[in-house]
Write a structure and sequence with these properties.
12 strands, single chain, about 525 residues, two-stranded antiparallel ribbon, alpha/beta, 10-stranded mixed beta sheet
């Protein structure tokens, strides 16, 4: 995946198991001193709007021992300018895990409809361990050590195991005293500290991607403090976390088939084949060619495995066609296709993944914020593994199990099956301190989903919707991006979300709407 970066620019803590707190116990677990904090608001930066204010709270590293070590929690706000219409606060999480959210109120402030914007103070925060909130690090992972996994080949599997073990060892050595506490449950507890410090009885919330799981966990731990929650591009709580990478493999297959049909209908433009079968053969021939003789782009080699490593590419038939046409010409002639030039692949992939800058579903090393990033360039990756490995003990501990799974899934789902099931650092992570949060409590929240989002696909969104009794779901047919609300001015889902945030009224039933057709 890292080898695509240049191309994108042109086209020892052994934890003991602790009992799971019930929702009332979780609510009572806070020490009054943390809840009684008063944020010392100040202008975030001279080059930012004066209305964009920042503060720092203290939260316990370990909520079951709150008298011990503390972490900084960086928060921000932009207040409602209409006190008469103000309902409360709206917290925002852009995804990840490992993605900062401190500056997000400035984005929402310019994109939200006024009728919604007036009702809330917009609250941003860097989750614990991320950005300005006591960032964790693995000591500076090299580019080869970052990313979320590799293609499976028997001859390279020993090096995959060494990579996974090496990342886990480095993280443990550098931040092993903190990482076991960088989890979704503790981040949900932090949200309730923010709520209390702001003097609010309840919070409203907008979460994308990983942020949907954080919002779900909060709704289960603190149901009486959950107000209007929008969970956009949802994580299925039953797939946390290995299943969320494995679902990419199953769901990219129908998107790939859709692309082959689309490209075949436009063979005069792209020249990839006149039938879906021919387009598919063109792609797989390109993969095989790049495996034999990597495509050289800006001095970097792109292999067939690299071409399979971005399932989100196939969210957009236009993007996939432009990229494959470009790479095919580059492989065959060494030049871009005549009259086409290099597609802006970076823009295409980021547009398919996210509605906000740096808001990826599974963070592969997003910037941690100006100050933190300079010192900890692996902060996004370190926080990512802390959460996905520390939230659940569902990761196999036997490396051979990963090899068997990857081989089986590659045969079933050749595009991405081996990537999703290959070994991860979680195989060598310290055991989690808590089990995952059971999703049993009714939550009248709104979930939102694009039909062709391949990072959190509809199967994942339906999984969350089914688990959250009382929820309603909006499905945007034809939607391709990872992130729905405010990500596309033409999205058919925005009106329903606007109504819910402005009035609190959920639709009477689930909503399926049709987005405008994609590019011709």
């Amino acid at each position: 995946m890292k080898r695509l970066a240049p191309l994108l620019a042109t086209v020892g803590l052994v934890a003991t198991s602790l009992p799971l707190l019930t929702a009332p116990q979780a609510a009572a677990a806070q020490v009054p001193g943390y809840a009684r904090q008063k944020p010392a608001w100040h202008r975030c930066s001279p080059d930012r709007p004066a209305a964009y204010e920042c503060a720092t709270l203290k939260v316990p590293l370990d909520y079951q021992h709150p008298e011990g070590r503390t972490l900084d929690l960086a928060i921000s706000r932009m207040k409602s300018e209409n006190p008469a219409k103000r309902r409360g606060v709206l917290l925002f999480n852009p995804g990840g895990p490992g993605t900062p959210g401190l500056f997000r109120p400035m984005v929402l402030n310019t994109t939200m409809p006024k009728d919604v914007r007036d009702r809330y103070d917009l609250i941003g925060f860097d989750p614990r361990g991320v950005g300005e909130s006591s960032p964790v690090t693995c000591g500076g992972l090299s580019p080869a050590e970052q990313g979320i996994g590799h293609a499976y080949r028997p001859e390279t599997f020993p090096s995959d195991v060494a990579w996974a073990r090496g990342v886990a060892d480095k993280c443990r050595e550098k931040s092993g005293d903190v990482m076991p506490y960088i989890t979704t449950r503790n981040t949900a507890r932090d949200l309730d500290v923010i709520r209390a410090a702001l003097g609010e009885r309840k919070i409203s919330y907008l979460g994308y991607s990983y942020g949907t799981y954080l919002g779900t966990v909060y709704s289960q731990m603190f149901p009486q403090r959950t107000d209007r929650f929008v969970l956009d591009s949802a994580v299925d709580p039953q797939r946390v976390w290995r299943g969320m990478t494995q679902v990419w493999a199953t769901e990219v297959e129908p998107a790939f088939a859709r692309w082959t049909r689309w490209a075949a209908e436009r063979s005069d433009r792209y020249g990839l084949g006149t039938t879906p079968e021919e387009v598919s053969a063109t792609f797989w021939d390109l993969v095989a060619r790049a495996d034999r003789d990597p495509i050289v782009q800006d001095g970097q080699k792109v292999t067939g495995d690299d071409l399979r490593s971005e399932p989100s590419l196939f969210s957009s038939p236009y993007g996939a066609s432009a990229v494959v046409r470009y790479l095919k010409a580059l492989a065959e002639t060494g030049h871009a296709p005549a009259g086409g030039g290099a597609p802006d692949l970076k823009q295409l992939l980021e547009g398919a993944r996210t509605s906000e800058p740096n808001a990826s579903a599974l963070n592969t090393g997003a910037a941690a914020g100006p100050a933190a990033a300079a010192e900890f360039d692996d902060n996004g990756t370190a926080a990512y593994w802390s959460v996905v490995c520390g939230d659940t003990d569902a990761w196999p501990r036997d490396p051979d199990q990963y090899a068997r799974d990857a081989e089986r899934e590659k045969a079933k789902h050749p595009l991405y099956g081996d990537f999703g099931s290959n070994i991860k650092p979680c195989a060598f992570w310290q055991p989690p301190l808590e089990p995952p949060t059971p999703v049993k409590t009714r939550a009248e929240v709104l979930t939102v989903q694009n039909e062709w989002d391949l990072i959190t696909p509809p199967a994942s969104g339906q999984g969350l919707h089914k688990a959250l009794r009382g929820s309603r779901m909006v499905l945007a047919l034809g939607g391709e991006k990872h992130g729905v609300y405010l990500s596309d001015p033409a999205s058919c889902a925005d009106a329903t979300v606007d109504t819910y945030l402005a009035t609190g009224r959920l639709p009477a039933a689930d909503v399926t709407c049709q987005n405008p057709p994609p590019l011709p």
